[in-house]
Structure prediction request, 1046 residues.
Amino acid sequence: MKKNRFRFTIAIVCILALGAFSTAGICAEVGVTDDKILFGTFQDMSGPGAYLGKQVTSALTVWKDWVNDDLGGFHGRKVDFVVEDMKYDPVLTKTAFTKLVHQHKVFAVIMVYGSTPCTAILDDIKKEKVPVFPTAATTQNMYDPPIRYLFWYACSDEDNGIMMVDYIVNDLKAKNVKLGVVYQDDEWGKSALKGVEIGAKKYGLKVDSAGYKRGTKNLNPQAMRMKAKGVTHCFYAGYAPVYAALLQEANKVGWKPTFFGDYVTVDPRTFMAGDLADGHYHFFNLGMQHERVPGWIQMEKLFTEKLGAEAAKEPLSWRLMPLMWTPLLYLNQALEEIGPDLTREKLVDKLESIQNFDSGGLGKIQFGPNMRKGNHEYRIFKCDAKKQQFVPVTDWRQPSLK
Amino acid sequence: MAVTRFCIRSYPQDLKVFPSPAARISLVWLLLFLLGLPFFSGKYITFVAAVCGVSVISALGLNILTGYTGLISLGHAAFMGIGAYTAAALANKAGFPFLAALPLAGLLAAATGAVVGIPTLRLRGLYLVVTTLAFEFIVEHIIYHWESMTQSDRGISLPTPDLFGYTLDTYESFYYVVLVLAVATALFTKNLAMSRTGRALVAIRDRDIAAEIIGVHLAKYKILAFVVSSFIAGIAGALYAYLLGLISPDHFTFNQSVLYIAMIIVGGMGTVMGSIIGAVFMVLLPEVINAISSPIASAYPILSPRIGAVSVIVYGLVIILFLLFEPNGLYGIWIRIKRYWKPWPFTY
Amino acid sequence: MGFEILLQLTVTGLAWGSVYACIALGFVLIFKSTDIFNFAQPELMMLGAYMAFALITLFKLPFIVGFIFALVMMAAIAALLEMMVVRPMVGEPVLSVIMVTLGLANVLRGLTGLVWGYEEQQFPSPFPDDPIMLFGAAINQAEIYTIVATAMLLTIFFLFFKYSSSGISMRATAEDAKTAFLMGINVKQVFTASWAIAALVATIAGVFLASFTFLEPIMGHTGLKALPAMILGGLDSVVGAIIGGLIIGVVENLAGFYLEDYLGSGINDIAAYVIVLIVMMVRPYGLFGTKEIERV
Prediction:
């Protein structure tokens, strides 16, 4: 029995020691000391979204080195960040968030994503009043109703769904249109369906849909359903490899519609379908590397410099990288403009008051009082499978309905 | 399969819940520690402790079904989900108070348990495993698609629970509720195991035909095991829902069911202590791995994608090594240590 | 039109069912001879596919050579795993052994993620993309090969268990390991062999699945579909596993097409489990499983 008590004491000591690893000093605002601002983030390092986790952490590393070494920090303070693994699991996200706020005592949470994980901490964000800038989750509850501390910057599939119908009717002027939606049947996919339905209603069209569960690989029933309904224009909301599988399945069963992929399909893995991907449309709210805009040139330079040419290849080949990088540029401007007296409230006020931010062609980002949706404008791209590129066919535009 | 209790000298002693004064004293120490935990640890540790508590309750429930009765179920998370969503729907849509929603959640889960229990009476072994797995997936599907009630993966939020006029709005206060219920469940399970019912369940596990011959009503006790186990799972699910404040279908998946089975096996099947140790171990293991890997990932972000994979490997390896070292689970290791020290300093 | 749709759905369903059948076959082979339910089977499938992928893309081997090398390597790996991890557990509680295979699944998944990364990759499929028309139903060449391979496997295993002495000793071990041991059968060898064969079958399933779709470390999740397949057929029946797999493949394809309007999207994913629930009510030992006769 003595032995057990001894083991137990050791266990307690271990737990206490873990608890004592808090890094914050004494200062006016949590996570801010005279020479450091500590940010936190939770990433999927080993779950189904580990690919994202890897890219985002490398972007954050580049950002940190850039700010500390080249920009000399903000008003004498260097930046640092801690990463918690959440394995795309809602409970682990909650513990990760609690840990960031109470144990690491971070100033703000930056660059997070995932509908289910982020939804799980909505209440905690309200309660703890920690700025979360930004989340790239694809659900509407991130910005509607607006939460003061939560900023959203991603692509809205609802906007894109409306834009698809606008584009088909007004630009393509297609006749005998039969709209369809193939979607991953979660909040993300459902928002796409909702968008297309809203758009279809405006123009008096009908929509057929086929959902599939996340993780499904056999899309034969979905393709057959769409074919049987005679769908001519189909929106797709889901991951790129599944999109490639859908293109192959559609080809197999002889269903030949025009596809409109959402922003996630703007991905090299779409080309897994080969020539079948050619000529279909994609919605995107970011600048492309091959457009050689100043923002991309700067990104290329910094990533190659900080990570090394070899290690920079993979993050730079990720077309969504500006989605992570633009908010960091925006955050830089906010931190610079706030001045030496940095608090969470001031950060939130500053983030919503910056106007006409210049991202160097990477994308439009704009918040406002009570406006937590950071993105309103998109372009439509056409897929060129031979060059493995997405070429813009429209200028920046907004959906015709709100 | 059960680990024999050692240092027991007589039948009356065997029937006691706490076999020796030493056991009682160490339990008092443990209880004092658990009561004081929120005072000297941070919010994060209290939260993790509360998650541990909920898992302990749920694992104890599964232990009755799988550990004692030998009916292996991969549908445990589904019962928790039913409990959680009942509580959420009652509290969110009908405004039920915490004290009413909690038992109702347990009761609905128990009723489902009875419904599942009856048709599975004829099934044994892996047939039962996969049938409960089918139940798990079907419940998952219903939770996901019954949007008007569950709000699908937007998640359904629960109001802050009230207890006798106190608002349990911090992790610390809710931790005590979980603690009380966990202790109560442990005592109940321990007593159940020593009652006639408990012995009947164990007899069914060891040899069901033999049990039937000596007069154990198989159908009755199997269904009883299902009902009690799913009642406890329902309560645990409801507590989980209140603790998190917002639940979505992702909380009650097949992986969770496997996790609960893992808890009772790693801890030691068919023992109360084993379920408790196993639940705490399986909840803390990823947390500990994260606690070690996160600083490394922060310091060397280039390594971080590798660290994710390494922690999955470590997680698997720990389970394998523990079981290779002691196939009876953590409780077996505990017993082995005790046995080693008992005759000390003599070799025999 | 109606008939063509039905035919198309059935043919594609059969192809997917063949993949499920191959995975289920791996489960059954190990269960039949060792009484262990191997949770790591889907991970063996994934590892097999990655192994073939690495050999083909990294060492620039032709598909068929890479595939055969992958088969050999996977058999060796599975045999090693059996000797190192599973054999020390012989005689211990079955549930503990099952738990060990679950831990093994984690280790294999983590290793794959470590070596190949978590992002999806395109598998260098040797089969042309253009479908072949068969009575008005389109079918991919990869799918044809899957169906053919499954049929061959079924015949080979049927003959193996019926006539070869190794097959007979495996059946004997499954019946009663102790007696088989006393009769001079090398039980250890039988256990190792069953793991090796299960890994072979898993690799075949993995390569075909990856050819239909793509590679990712979580492709093991598709392997879960093999569970209803094997239960449906009956746990200890090789024929049952294959027929179970085919039924599940066809049923989920049909359900996905015809029932989505009534039961919501994702119905194709649970159709398999609904079938299992119904069959278990009627036949508690599956369609082809043998009823155990119990004696006290």
Observations:
- Residues 37-255 of chain B form one domain.
- Chain B has 15 helices and four strands.
- Chain B touches chain A through 51 residues (CB under 8 Å).
- Residues 272-299 of chain B form the longest helix (28 residues).
